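About this split. The held-out portion is used to measure sequence recovery: a designer receives only the structure tokens and must propose an amino acid at every position. Recovery is the fraction of positions where the proposal matches the reference. Here is one held-out target exactly as it appears in the evaluation file.
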């Protein structure tokens, strides 16, 4: 029997996602909770596990396509109900028809708990399977039989299409392919995409002969792969993380009155402290960088000035007595700001480990939605790009963000004498509705003082 897996809401009330990469193909065997696909939401790239065990029947959405939550993305044949493809398809349609007659509530079934989207319930009702008939398939002009009314609030699956037919979005990847498992295995072994074939078997199913004929024929070049020679322009769709980031930055820049203050700091002692920390056994298995001490200094400044760690709601100011420290990270898909939860409660080795793991996941695009929400204050390290400073835009929902520039040798006056020192530039942007110039200056001054003399972190913590 065929079963459809619909795109779940992976958290935060997301409504759509892009299919980034399939880890399975038609004909593959899958187990419950096996990772089958990577999707990109407006917040992160998430791996989805399979809720069924069986053989992949069809990938109903191609890579690069964006689909709504609740739309079917893959069908799996679990081996129950015999080998008849038509009967399996009919059983699938029957299973997915909600029972809304006379306003009666549908029976709820609990799906297995799967990593990535938790417990889901589905309002479905199984109707008795109709006996298979030998009547030929209806022609394209034949009117469809009447269907029981369905509530608009519940998604209705599209009827199965013959092999080679294309569904609403026009993508070949959304075709539901009819083929028996041995044929699927043969296609997989020969590298043939079943969705590109037109079946000659019963009800348009693909046969062994169809697969063998496809191997002998030259493969067409996909339309997406064709590029005009000498093209002078390239168009990149704005979607996923990049689209969400753009919308958030525009909303932040034109809703919160930004003020930015600057401070040059002698961080020679901080660089020496970093060198010494790297030699300690507590930090043997973690990465120690200047960012660790910058983070610790900012957390300490937040404890001294709690109003810098707040949210403006329009009706009230919510001061957070915990620090979920955001770290802005540039990725191939755009800027994301994952955060370390309760960073203020961590020891220095714990904070170093959390920062290292978070940045690795961010660069690999593996951050979970929960890691990308709930931040209270952010650091952005523009120095890694060889930049001295910048004017950072507030992460939405926060009232302050600290930018750290590159650390470089500069002439500096020390005890009345000119010397070469390690110097960086700090830039603090803040929301002037919550943070006035005095508070912003105190916070920036405290962070700078602790980076000039790291022992102050111990005294002020």
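Reference sequence for scoring:
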């Amino acid at each position: 029997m065929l079963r459809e897996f619909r795109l779940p809401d992976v958290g935060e009330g997301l409504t759509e996602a892009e299919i980034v990469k399939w880890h399975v193909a038609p004909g593959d065997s899958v187990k419950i909770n096996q990772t089958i696909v990577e999707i990109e939401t407006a917040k992160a790239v998430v791996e989805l596990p399979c809720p069924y065990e069986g053989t992949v029947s069809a990938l109903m959405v191609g890579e690069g396509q964006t689909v709504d939550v609740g739309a079917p993305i893959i069908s799996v044949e679990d081996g129950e109900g015999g080998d008849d493809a038509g009967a399996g398809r009919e059983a699938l349609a029957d299973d997915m028809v909600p029972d809304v007659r006379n306003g009666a509530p549908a029976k709820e079934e609990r799906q297995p708990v799967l990593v990535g989207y938790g417990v889901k319930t589905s309002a479905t009702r199984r109707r008795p399977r109709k006996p298979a008939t030998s009547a030929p398939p209806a022609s394209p002009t034949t009117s469809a039989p009447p269907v029981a009314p369905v509530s608009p609030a519940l998604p209705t699956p599209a009827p199965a299409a013959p092999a080679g037919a294309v569904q609403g979005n026009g993508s070949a990847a959304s075709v539901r392919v009819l083929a028996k498992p041995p044929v699927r295995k043969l296609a997989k072994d020969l590298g043939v995409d079943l969705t590109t074939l037109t079946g000659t078997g019963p009800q348009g199913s693909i046969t062994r002969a169809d697969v063998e004929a496809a191997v002998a024929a030259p493969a067409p070049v996909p339309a997406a792969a064709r590029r005009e020679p000498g093209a002078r322009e390239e168009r990149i769709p704005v979607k996923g993380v990049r689209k969400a980031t753009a919308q958030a930055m525009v909303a932040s820049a034109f809703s919160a009155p930004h003020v930015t203050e600057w401070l040059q700091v002698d961080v020679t002692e901080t660089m020496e402290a970093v060198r010494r920390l790297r030699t300690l056994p507590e930090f043997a298995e973690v990465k120690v960088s200047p960012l660790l001490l910058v983070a610790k200094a900012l957390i300490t400044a937040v404890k001294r000035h709690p109003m810098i760690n707040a949210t403006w709601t329009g009706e009230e100011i919510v001061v957070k007595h915990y620090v979920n420290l955001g770290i802005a990270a540039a990725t191939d898909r755009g800027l994301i700001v994952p955060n370390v939860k309760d960073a203020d409660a961590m020891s220095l080795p714990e904070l170093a480990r959390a920062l290292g793991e978070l940045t690795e996941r961010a660069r690999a695009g593996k951050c979970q939605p929960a890691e990308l929400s709930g931040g209270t204050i952010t650091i952005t390290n523009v120095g890694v790009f060889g930049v001295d400073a910048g004017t950072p835009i507030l992460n939405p929902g926060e009232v302050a963000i600290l930018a750290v520039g590159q650390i470089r040798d500069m002439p500096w006056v020390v005890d009345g004498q000119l010397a070469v020192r390690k110097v960086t530039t700090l830039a603090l942007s803040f929301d002037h509705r919550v943070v006035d110039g005095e508070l912003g200056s105190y916070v920036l001054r405290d962070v700078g003082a602790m980076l000039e003399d790291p022992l102050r972190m111990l005294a002020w913590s």
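Annotator remark: The domain at 2-130+146-174 is CATH 2.40.50.100 (OB fold (Dihydrolipoamide Acetyltransferase, E2P)).
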